[in-house]
């Protein structure tokens, strides 16, 4: 370990660099940051030699129930519809409680070792399977309490909310203290033209959430079709209904292809409605604009710069990991940030964008991710001394502190999942 952190109730971290580039010394007492002082203040302690000290990460949009099925369920053509079809088949064949729990827990172990302290995961919520999926989530939320704070969101096509099924899903989410979510497409279809009857279904979903005091977290306009423009409808609906809960929307890939006047109006509505946006740059770059034998012509990401400039809270997150939607990833939010910076030009300057994997998503989860006096010493320490170093080389030797104590950052071995590749355990 490059930084020998003492297992003591009281110590200083000296000569640190914070995410905004400031030099600092931090005093940690009984797991809390009790002093944040200018560099050179501490009379003694661990010398980080200019290494960066970051708050632990928050991953506000992922799919832990889908994770790590790629070896047994690859996407045949790498497309969005290919991913949907592959996952549907795998869920029907293999998603027992044991199968989901083993893969879900593997993802949590990776996230924890990399320095993530809070996760919001979407759960495929198709009846009757949904009851088992939410029960698995509830068990793991309790098991991981104090290490990773977990929230869950339902996900299924919006047309599944019509009638009794929608009420049962909403009741299930409410019983588990979850967030109501859906995708703005119909079953078996992609994100294209706005479906017939969409406004009535959307109002029905809002009513289900309102009656139960639920927030909303939606998969929106995840395509390169300019006809996929449900986001302004969602914002207008929230404003008309004076919706009191939080709304977060993910993806909104098609926004970047709209006409300029439509973009400006959509962003205005999103800001006015208080909607948060989360972008999933790695997964969207993988799926969007894909055609056999052709080089992609766009990156599939939404207008992060324009949204942030308008005052819309913007996060980036991991989304899928080693499943048909994205066959790569390791639940590492530092990797997500590094790739987001490269893909979306989140630099010049890069420093303010670190909030997109820390303070902004943490606030969406009702939490805090900051380095201040009085905050928990949940920290990620990097040997890198500035962002140009941290984002150039994989930070495999990072040190993670939780409540001021070093945790084991050994990643779980993929071999542990070998028994799941051919199906559920007997």
Automatic annotation (TrEMBL):
<protein>
    <submittedName>
        <fullName>Cytosine deaminase</fullName>
        <ecNumber>3.5.4.1</ecNumber>
    </submittedName>
</protein>
<dbReference type="InterPro" id="IPR013108">
    <property type="entry name" value="Amidohydro_3"/>
</dbReference>
<keyword id="KW-0479">Metal-binding</keyword>
<keyword id="KW-0378">Hydrolase</keyword>
<dbReference type="GO" id="GO:0006209">
    <property type="term" value="P:cytosine catabolic process"/>
</dbReference>
<dbReference type="Pfam" id="PF07969">
    <property type="entry name" value="Amidohydro_3"/>
</dbReference>
<dbReference type="GO" id="GO:0035888">
    <property type="term" value="F:isoguanine deaminase activity"/>
</dbReference>
<dbReference type="InterPro" id="IPR052349">
    <property type="entry name" value="Metallo-hydrolase_Enzymes"/>
</dbReference>
<feature type="domain" description="Amidohydrolase 3">
    <location>
        <begin position="202"/>
        <end position="406"/>
    </location>
</feature>
<dbReference type="GO" id="GO:0046872">
    <property type="term" value="F:metal ion binding"/>
</dbReference>
<dbReference type="GO" id="GO:0004131">
    <property type="term" value="F:cytosine deaminase activity"/>
</dbReference>
